[in-house]
Write a structure and sequence with these properties.
Layout (H helix, E strand, L loop, with lengths): L1 E6 L5 E12 L3 H12 L4 E5 L25 H14 L3 E4 L2 E7 L2 E6 L3 E9 L3 E3 L15 E2 L2 H4 L7 E5 L3 H10 L5 E5 L9 H9 L3 E4 L2 E8 L3 E8 L5 E5 L2 E4 L3 E3 L30 E3 L11 H23 L1
Parallel strand pairs: 2-3, 2-7, 3-4, 7-18, 9-16, 10-11, 10-16, 11-12
Antiparallel strand pairs: 1-2, 5-6, 6-7, 8-17, 13-14, 14-15
């Protein structure tokens, strides 16, 4: 571990820890990066504001990650990522990073009360699903409500499922879910879908799918698991209860890049970080990995791959700095 001289608010010289790499985020991309970085003997700090493991922790079963043919819960998989990173020496802190600053050779990740300094940074803060914001919703996330059919559709085998949304993701996941569910309803708040025409045709031709036009969710109910949802017709104002065993919400996601608003990190119009195949951002020594970067496929395995690439490239960047 190294230290760096800096000036505090009282104009007194102090010593601050200077890590080789700081990883902002705690999902599969972040923890894989931590495994590779700490294994390479880089002083590594992982900063996560909530729970390690990322969005997979809400998945009851993960059955598409290699090496686990008997399935594993998202929570358990996240704990294994964490354990492996710690075994190699990665340090973990729970803080909410609100600002990032590039100070040349030193990068600063700043929380509400303190700052953390490093020679390189890997941003792996992922995305957040947009929620419906209706009564009962939070109570059933992971207990009937899911944001990933690829992860959780097998849990809805022989059940009725409600998919909320009208874009590509909603229709793709609804079609996928029909492989397991008895019936799939698609609730869309309007009459015109945003999804591509071929997906609309596939969904319309699928006998298991029924569209609920001009329909919004007003409330989610159940005992221990999701049992029914209260729906409302936007045109007539009619409300009715629909019994379902699962609900998939696809009204969009947004990248967790709010702390980069005043930085020079290049992002697209939606806020996703732009990188090359080496995970390099527009700032030397700053990398992005996982769902937070501009990419097509967002899965646990692709996030982990991004994290491995970012850590290896950060290692190369630091080696060049020394030479």
């Amino acid at each position: 571990m190294q230290y760096i001289d800096r000036i505090n608010h009282n104009s007194k010289e102090v010593l601050s820890l200077l890590y080789d790499v700081i990883i902002i985020g705690g999902g599969p991309a972040a923890l894989t990066a931590a495994i590779y970085a700490s294994r390479a003997k880089l002083s590594t700090l992982v900063i996560e504001k909530m729970v390690l493991g990322g969005t997979i922790v809400i998945s009851e079963k993960v059955n598409n990650y290699p090496g686990f043919p008997q399935d594993i819960s998202g929570y358990e998989l996240g704990k294994l990522f964490e354990e492996q990173a710690k075994n190699f020496g990665a340090e973990i802190k729970w803080k909410n990073i609100v600002r990032f600053e590039d100070r040349g050779d030193v990068k600063a990740a700043i929380s509400e009360k303190e700052e953390f300094l490093a020679k390189s940074v890997i941003i792996a803060t992922g995305t957040s699903h947009k929620s419906l914001g209706v009564p009962g919703e939070e109570n059933f996330i992971g207990r009937g409500i899911s944001f990933c059919a690829t992860c959780d559709a097998p849990l809805f085998r022989n059940k009725k499922v409600l998919v909320v949304g009208g874009g590509n993701a909603a229709l793709q996941e609804a079609i996928f879910t029909t492989q397991f569910a008895e019936k799939v309803y698609i609730a869309h708040r309007g009459e015109n879908l945003r999804a591509e025409k071929d997906l609309q045709e596939q969904a319309s031709e699928n006998e298991k799918i029924e569209f609920l036009w001009n329909t919004v969710v007003k409330e989610v109910k159940g005992e221990n698991l999701l049992e029914k949802v209260l729906l409302r017709d936007n045109v007539t104002g009619e409300e009715w209860m629909l019994e379902v065993g699962g609900m998939l919400i696809y009204i969009g996601v947004h990248p967790n890049t709010y702390f980069l608003e005043d930085s020079e990190v290049e992002m697209d119009e939606e806020g996703y970080i732009i990188t090359n195949e080496k995970m390099e951002t527009s700032i030397a020594g700053v990398y992005a990995a996982g769902d937070v970067r501009q990419k097509k496929v967002r899965q646990v395995i692709t996030a982990a791959a991004d994290g491995a690439v970012a850590a290896n490239l950060a290692k190369s960047y630091l080696k060049k700095r020394k030479s």
